[in-house]
Each structure stands twice: as C-alpha cells, then as structure tokens.
Write a structure and sequence with these properties.
The protein has no helices and six strands. A six-stranded antiparallel barrel has the order 1-2-3-6-5-4. The relative contact order is 0.21.
Length: 88
C-alpha cells in the first residue's frame, strides 16, 4: 500500500504586477539598470543587466516605497527574486 504525502501549502503575500525601470546598487560600486516585474510586501522579482549571485545584498528604489535593502534569494539568468530587508 502506497503512503500519501500531505502537501504543505505555504501562503505567500499577494503580488502586484508592475513594469518599472529602476537602478540596483550592487554594493560593489556599480549601479545597474534593472526592471521590476512584481512586488509584494516582503519582496520583489526583477531582472538586471548583470547576473547577481544568490545571497548578495543590494539597494534598490521601489515604486511608491523608496530605497530598500534586499537580499537575492533566487536567480535564473538575469532574473532574480529578492527579500526586502528594510528601508535605507
């Protein structure tokens, strides 16, 4: 008899889809052009002109929120997701 595994659902905050140009400060003296595709209370998805490593800390200006510090949590090519750490 096969055992069934119960799927665990972790609710995520709702995302707002946007298309906004901004600049990412990579913490190494570079300002990189980027585009934000969605944003939630705790994070955002964007793409950047340079590939950013997972775990990197960045500063970015978000629409209607201002400058925030964020940590790259995942990256696929030039697209990445970041967790907002706090206001700058």
């Amino acid at each position: 008899m096969a055992t069934q595994q119960k799927k665990i659902f972790v609710p995520r905050p709702p995302r707002q889809w946007i298309n906004a140009e901004t600049v990412v400060d990579d913490g190494n003296g570079r300002l990189l052009d980027s585009r934000i595709w969605n944003i939630s209370k705790g994070g955002f998805m964007a793409e950047c002109e340079e590939k950013l490593p997972i775990g990197a800390h960045i500063v970015v200006e978000l629409p209607k929120r201002g400058k925030v510090r964020a940590e790259i949590r995942w990256a696929v090519g030039w697209r990445f997701g970041a967790k907002i750490l706090g206001e700058v």
